[in-house]
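Before relying on records like the one below, remember that each one covers exactly one chain. Contacts with other chains, cofactors or solvent are not represented anywhere in the record.
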Amino acid sequence: MNKKLNVKGRDITIVQKNDHDYISLTDIAKHKTDDSSAVISNWMRNRNTLEFLGLWETLYNPEFKPLEFEGFKLQSGLNSFTLSPQKWINTTDAIGFIVKSGRYGGTFAHKDIAFKFASWISVEFELYIVKEFQRLKEQEEKQLGWNLQRTLAKINYHIHTDAIKENLIPPELPKEKIHFVYANEADLLNMALFGMTAKEWRVAYSEEKGHIRDAATIEQLVVLSNLESINSMLIHQGLPQSQRIAQLNAMAITQMMSLLAIGRMQNRLENKDESDGMV
């Protein structure tokens, strides 16, 4: 699925190739004119642009053809010289551009090249694009971290349920009562971390969709993963629920306080770096 940046009211599409982001030059060019192909070609025939593109390909593309690139450089001062992204790709085996046809096609360039093109269009517009791109990357990193913790929580959940099955469920227990034991242990962790059972959460937050754990913060998911592992160990040790919940609650409080303190420290450092950078 393609991603989009919204820069000064204009959507700019991002596609991925080999885990790299390619930003639409066609969308960026429309900030200046509707004839985006002409703008891109004019930018590419500039000698400074050619030298930048050649250097970029030399650094990142082992299949780049330097002799063909030199041929373009020799022509760059001529009035008759023209260059398009497709011609550049076909002649030099460049990887910095993607040309897509069709309704949702256009010319895309690796983010390094796209930012260079944006600065040629407008220094102000380039700044907005870079800032919006950074915001998108930060959002993706947070989502990745949240998904990673959810995955970790699921893995620990299976370890947890195996410990319950091996130590707390009698062999002949009816299926409906087995489910009760699992739910009972899940709510043990909910009580230790959230201070309420899943049912109590649904009553208190009836307008919310999903489960109590779907509303958890990334810090809570980290602690939940730890609690599931610790509870598995305590079950194997034969401790009753009354003793386990007291230990789990104490651990949850300690770990949450530590994680929140680390988060506050990181925010202060980030704010300090931003302030220093503006001086």
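The beta strands are 3-7, 10-17, 20-24, 97-100, 106-110.
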